[in-house]
């Protein structure tokens, strides 16, 4: 692949917004709302499922969820773009922060380490 | 770059979870919740800002938001991975669906096209 | 009790906003964001818990969650107020809609009735 | 009114869940997800609106939003009930905390007081 997928999606979204004159609606505030709205739709697919059921979706539901995840990604990439945030770089930096915050030997098998450290 | 950023992050998260034995917590249900929780944190940065203020963040806030966007991305990539969803492929497919749903000539400058068509 | 709790909270919030000149920030758009942000905080308390653990919170966590639920309620009541929506009336009407949508005999023990009917 | 609206809704929801044998799905974890999902639906109504537009909804949209707020309230009341949290009491306690945290004279007209104090 010649182009990174994140960059490809970012460029597609730029064109998409330009062709529709939607830049005026794509303020960070509005895009943050759209991102949260789509995350809410992801959650609705899982809310009545047990942990086990959530890991064994039927094909139809799995495809619906895939497109909801795509929606989250589209707004995430677009929001990062209008904020001039390099998403891949931010993700790498956050991974490094998390690695320091949750040392493997101390965090092993403990989910409370996520939010109580 | 030799490796796509999404794949790189996915692989880092796999290693991260493995080293901490966190796979047991990473059910799709739990990860969907974490994704929504992080989207909620993004929103909290913007809730009292005007549209204009949201587009002119000071450096400190912009960096905080960048790391929140990174959190959303990390959970999004991880959730897609445990569901065996190809995120880049899903995003491309959703872009194609949106292009058909919102034809440029009809959707121009109309935000209602997003949710009322 | 001489006054309905919802009305009491609504009136307290009106006074609170007035005394701080916060009416200018309390647009429906901003309050909807605040509501979603607080719902995100509720979720963060439960994301790594099993169903069983979520039903057996220790006292400290339960009190933290109680105050998060309070935050959701405060923004919900305030948002309804600025929209001039009667929350108790809307809840009663929605309950009646749900009763018709999910007849007890057909919906018994089926969670899919929630979103697939 | 002889009965507080919050108690009335709580009791209706108890009956509703009992008649449908839905108690098994109403774990705090699941209800927290449903609450966040509904808050996401509220947000979707406002995401492309300006602050001004959000304060001047047409009748159709306002009624749609009223029923979304009702959904948030139903899950909020139900979640509080299964956690044995007194919602009205928690709201009052949170209001008292906020009054101390944001003294009227210092917080006047400053939205940053919400999250930066």
TrEMBL record, chains A, B, C, D:
GO terms for molecular function: nucleoside triphosphate diphosphatase activity. The keyword Ribosomal protein does not apply. GO terms for biological process: nucleoside triphosphate catabolic process. Keywords: Hydrolase. Coiled coil: none annotated. Pfam families: MazG-like. CDD domains: NTP-PPase_RS21-C6_like. This is Nucleotide pyrophosphohydrolase. It comes from Parazoarcus communis. The lineage of its organism: Bacteria, Pseudomonadati, Pseudomonadota, Betaproteobacteria, Rhodocyclales.
């Amino acid at each position: 692949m010649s182009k990174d997928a994140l960059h490809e999606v970012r460029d597609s979204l730029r064109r998409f917004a330009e062709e529709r004159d939607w830049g005026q609606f794509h303020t960070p505030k509005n895009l943050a709302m759209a991102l949260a709205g789509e995350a809410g739709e992801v959650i609705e697919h899982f809310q009545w499922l047990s942990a086990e059921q959530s890991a064994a979706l039927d094909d139809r539901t799995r495809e619906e969820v895939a497109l909801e995840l795509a929606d989250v990604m589209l707004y995430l990439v677009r929001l990062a773009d209008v904020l001039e945030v390099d998403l891949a770089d931010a993700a790498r930096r956050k991974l490094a922060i998390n690695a320091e915050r949750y040392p493997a030997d101390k965090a092993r098998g403990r989910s409370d380490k996520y939010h109580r450290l």
